[in-house]
Amino acid sequence: LGGSYMPESIRRVLEVRRGVKGLSAREHSILQCAAKGLSNPEIAGLLGISVNSVKTHLRHVFEKMDVEDRVEAVTLAFSRGILSS
């Protein structure tokens, strides 16, 4: 195998290990907080950001994970090993 070629199966494994299409550190932190059951205002207070920033980060998480809501995102994250209990 040469150059930048990477089989699809390997690319998918690496993608999951990176956290599904490259979740940022902030997105990962917010996903962890959501998994603990924290509300958007609680997450904002804990991380020192605005509620609107939390919503924006969550929206990006949903897009990257191809899910509709935080329950689906957290469930998928646990099942793929992105989050651990």
Characterize the structure shown.
The model has no long low-confidence stretch (mean pLDDT 85). Helix content is 65%, strand content 0%. It has helices spanning 8-18, 25-35, 40-47, 51-65, 70-79. By secondary structure, the chain is mainly α. Helix 3 packs across helix 4. The chain is globular, with a radius of gyration of 14 Å.
What order do the SSEs take from the amino end to the carboxyl end, as H and E?
A: HHHHH
Distance between the termini: 38 Å
Radius of gyration: 14 Å
Going by helix content, strand content and strand pairing, the class is: mainly alpha
Largest sheet: none
Unreliable stretches covering 5 or more consecutive residues: none
Strand content: under 5%
How does the overall form come out from the CA principal axes?
globular
The count of helical stretches stands at 5
Strand elements, count: 0
Q: What share of residues is helical?
A: 55-70%
Whole-number average pLDDT?
A: 85
Summarize the structure.
The chain is mainly alpha-helical.
Any chance you could write out the topology, listing elements then pairs?
Elements: H1 8-18, H2 25-35, H3 40-47, H4 51-65, H5 70-79
Helix pairs in contact: 2-4, 2-5, 3-4
